[in-house]
Amino acid sequence: MAAIHTLGELRQSGRRSRPVKQEIRDNLVQKLQAGEPLFPGIIGYDETVIPQLVNAILSKHNFILLGLRGQAKSRILRGLVDLLDAQIPVVPGCEIHDDPLAPLCASCRMRVATEGDDMAIGWLPREARYVEKLATPDVTIADMVGDIDPIKAAQAGLNLADELTMHYGLLPRANRGIFAVNELPDLAGKIQVGLFNILQEGDVQIKGYPIRLKLDVMLVFTANPEDYTARGKIITPLKDRIGSEIRTHYPATRTNAMAITRQEAWTERAGALTVQVPEYVREVVEEIAFQARADRKIDKRSGVSQRLPITTLELVVSNAERRALANKEPVVVPRVTDLYAALPSITGKFELEYEGELRGAEQIAKDLIRSAVGNVFSGMFEGTDTRGVVEWFDLGGSLPLSDATPAADVIAQTRNVQGLRELADHAGLPKGAAPPHVASAIDFVLEGLTAQKKISRSEERGYSATEAAPRRQPRRDEPAMDEEIRIPGGKKKYYN
Q1: Which of the two residues, 224 and 255, has the higher pLDDT score?
Q2: 453 pLDDT higher than 90
Q3: I need a labelling partner for 344 at 20 to 30 A (CA). Which of 53, 57, 330, 383 fits?
Q4: 276, 375: one domain
Q5: In this structure, are 106 and 147 located in the same domain?
């Protein structure tokens, strides 16, 4: 179609314009029949959100996505662009992308009448047909719909009621495309009222003048349910005119969550060093988000964004990269202890309840890390005998290790810990693994035992035996410690 340059050639081609919702529906039907992926990069919604979204499009509905932050709402809306035609014919220079075969605005109608079949046409790519606006309380009806431009009227000598004096807002500029409004409840009520006719009748009126534009646009919205009470609300008449309300959610499984983080996190760093992230590190990072969403000290209404594991993994890799550069190690292998260097990416991703405020965000984040490590370690080492390592510490052993300790030193200092290397192999360590991989697996085992409270770790001593509970002093009428006494039934009891 790009070979068509004039209105006459367009008419001779037999091309017929379609309403944008019909166009999106037709292209969706073709993708469904061909078995093509509908929304590449959207993970975990195949059985929930995507079917509802497909139904809304097949019904030619305007729709809204409701969900907490970090649930890919905006990404889904931007993915609708792939359901548009690759390009459509437009009147060149028209602000509302008028159809040459059926122009709406006065200036385009004049051009068609004056130039006829010789009028040149342009081609608008699908990417230019998507308009997105973040709703804020300061948005005006002029921003969204438009206004009368007195300067334009004065320069052209036109009456203010003339259609040619209009300055179009964002919505008319989305004509023949998709108009997305993010965080709809933040939009002032009077602005939401201004969307009524567009949703119901498909037209706009500007400044009360008798000017009507029969816009062809698909309206889509996003909203956070918490916003209904925190900042604003969707007024009932507007909500009633939205065809479908689709609920999004966080990943239901750790596998889906890991796939999202693997897709979004920046871990492939340019440079001489290769980054290799062990699977157990990825699992622990993801489990932190799951633990946070279930923690009673964290506000569930606010949610815990999927951005938490994404940014956390990036900081974990950066801390491992810093260690590898400082110690001249050939490969970057993150450790579980690197998570404590990623606290800045965790503490800002959740809102605390009153009980959490008392403990503080940093302490809550550390608790989440320990809980996540414990869950992943328990699942991987269920039924595995760890007594040999624990006994080594109980006999007085200690390991002054930190996240900055070189891999070679970690291996050297733990060589005499009975059973530790075997447990590291159980973590999925391949034969002939490089020292950074071995050190990371050893670190995971030690952190896992710490999370299970079988050994302890402190900033001063590193890893050591769990401190024993203080011994109770006997009362005056009790026998001394370790003294044998007789009790009824002939049994002996010792205080020790």
Answers
A1: 255
A2: yes
A3: 330
A4: yes
A5: yes
| pLDDT tens for each residue of 78-120 | 999 999 999 999 999 888 899 999 998 888 888 999 999 999 9
Per-residue three-class SS string for 82-143: HHCCCEEEECCCCCCCCCCCCCCCHHHHHHHHHHHHHCECEEEEHHHHEEEEECCCCCCHHH
Question: Distance (Å, rounded) from C-alpha 62 to C-alpha 77?
Answer: 12
Asked if residue 349 is part of any domain, the answer here is yes
Say if CB 259 and CB 43 are below 8 A apart: yes
Look at residues 181, 163, 164 and name the one whose alpha carbon lies nearest to residue 217: 181
Q: Is residue 493 part of a domain?
A: no
Measure Cα distances from 158 to 2, 109, 113 in Å.
36, 17, 20
pLDDT tens, position by position, 7-57: 999 999 888 889 999 999 999 999 999 999 999 999 999 999 999 999 999
Reference 299, options 361, 376, 256, 343; nearest CA is 361
Residue finishing a domain among 221, 247, 273:
247
Return mean pLDDT, the chain: 86
Residue 50 CA to residue 40 CA, distance in Å, equals 11
Tell me which DSSP letter residue 6 carries: B
Give yes or no: residues 261 and 379 share one domain. yes
In this structure, are 229 and 285 located in the same domain? Answer: no
Q: How far apart are CA 216 and CA 158, in angstroms?
A: 27
* Helices 254-264 and 279-294: angle between axes, nearest 10 degrees: 110
Q: pLDDT category, 326, cuts 50, 70, 90?
A: very high
Residue 158 belongs to domain spanning: 7-247
Q: Please state the domain count of the chain.
A: 2
Instruction: Using a cut of 0.85, tell me whether the model's pTM lies above it.
Output: no
Instruction: Clarify whether residues 419 and 436 are in a common domain.
Output: yes
Tell me, what CATH number does 16's domain have? 3.40.50.300
Task: Average the pLDDT over 166-188 and give the result.
Answer: 88
Q: How much is the average pLDDT of 398-414?
A: 93
321 with 364, same domain? yes
Buried residues in 354-387 as b, exposed as e (16+ CB within 10 A)? eebeeeebeebbbbbbbbbbbbbbeebbeeeebe
258 and 243 belong to one structural domain: no
Same domain, 222 and 283: no
On whether residue 265 sits in a domain, the answer given is yes
Q: What is the DSSP string of 176-191?
A: TEEEEEESGGGS-HHH
